[in-house]
Design goal:
CATH architecture of the largest domain: 3-Layer(aba) Sandwich
Number of domains: 2
Radius of gyration: 20 Å
Shape: globular
Strand content: 15-25%
Order of helices and strands: HEEEHEEEHHHEHEHEEHH
Bound molecules: adenosine-5'-diphosphate, magnesium ion
Oligomer: single chain
CATH topology of the largest domain: Rossmann fold
Strand order of the largest sheet: 6-7-8-3-9-10
Length: 313
């Protein structure tokens, strides 16, 4: 068995998430190599995400999603909220192309999603940094993968050329001073900034985040939440952020999708148009939304009848 070096076992660096992160980058590399996802970097499709009649179940379990349909427009900011185990991470992995629907389909930017696409950025719960690489090397990772093939129009779309902009993103995320350090030597907030810098260096059009701020202290969390929103607005990104925190969903999502007990069938969506604007967190609208979400989460989901239950298994 390969020994896990002590320096890599530092708090906040989790092996399962690193494994998933490596899988994500390898999948991305395979998809680039296969010449898939080479469609031009389109900006004229108003719909960024189309989830059509999605059904998904892990093997030998009843479905988490059943005949679930939802559209997300380009440039929107969505929060996916729900209690632990309701399927938030699963939905994000489906949107990332890391899991495939049992039935139905997902389209991103008009294209059927069959594997991770180069234009989607994914940030996992524990940052997914490579512990053996410095902050600068971590930020550069995706670009190095792309550079390996080059913008040849076959493996990477010609009009999608991420610049060699590592220094820009180190600066923009405020981590230039720690660029030579390893993930175990920096704070949780700096790790998250590194993960965001690495993803934005690839100039994605869609950013998927799984509970990205849950392990940060309150001040760092709010700081990074605000920075993420302003970067998404600046880059015209579509943002889908998973959280189990009602306050975070109400602070960040202009639309909040509330998931509940399986199977999730009809999406419950709450409008929150002023999310991200100055003063929103202290507004009456914010507090009312928090209350509505809290009440809704206390309401038990209707149980399927025996017939319905039979048909779902
Ligand atoms: N690989 C897997 N195999 C089987 N069941 C899984 C797997 N991953 C997650 N689950 C189950 O699916 C449900 C939803 O998981 P998940 O999407 O991680 O929930 P959430 O992110 O909302 O906490 C949970 O009951 C979890 O135990
Ligand atoms: Mg989760």
């Amino acid at each position: 068995m390969v020994e896990w070096p002590e320096a890599f076992s530092a708090e906040g660096v989790s092996r399962p998430h690193i494994a998933f992160e490596i899988k994500f980058w390898l999948n991305l590399l395979v998809s680039i190599r296969a010449g898939k996802n080479t469609q031009p970097y389109s900006t004229n499709n108003a719909l960024m995400i189309e989830i059509n009649s999605l059904t998904f179940a892990y093997p030998h379990t009843s479905p988490l999603f059943e005949n679930f349909t939802l559209n997300i427009s380009r440039g929107e900011t969505w929060a996916i909220l729900g209690p632990s185990g309701c399927g938030k991470t699963t939905l994000l992995y489906l949107l990332a192309g890391l899991r495939q629907p049992s039935a139905g389909e997902i389209k991103i930017d008009g294209e059927l999603l069959t594997r991770p696409r180069p234009h989607s950025g994914l940030i996992l719960q524990d940052y997914g940094l490579l512990p053996w690489s410095t902050v600068r090397e971590n930020v550069d990772l995706g670009l190095r993968v792309r550079k390996f093939y080059g913008p040849d129009g076959t493996h990477t779309p010609e009009n999608y050329l991420p610049k060699q902009n590592v220094e820009h993103w180190l600066e923009r995320l405020g981590i230039r001073e720690v660029a030579g350090k390893f993930p175990s030597q920096i704070s949780g907030g700096q790790r998250q900034r590194t993960a965001i810098a690495r993803t934005l260096a690839l100039e994605p059009d869609l950013l998927l985040m799984d509970e990205p701020f849950s392990s940060l202290d309150a001040l760092t969390r709010e700081d990074l939440q605000n920075l993420t929103l302003s970067l998404c607005a600046e880059q015209n990104l579509t943002l889908v952020i998973v959280t189990h925190s009602i306050e975070e969903a109400a602070a960040l999502g202009k639309k909040v999708l509330l998931l509940g007990g399986a199977p999730n069938q009809t999406p419950k969506v709450f409008e929150n148009p002023n999310a991200g604007q100055a003063g929103h967190r202290s507004s009456q609208e914010y507090h009312e939304l928090c209350n509505s979400l809290w009440e809704e989460m206390q309401t038990p989901s209707p149980q399927p009848t025996l017939n319905e239950r039979g048909s779902t298994q």
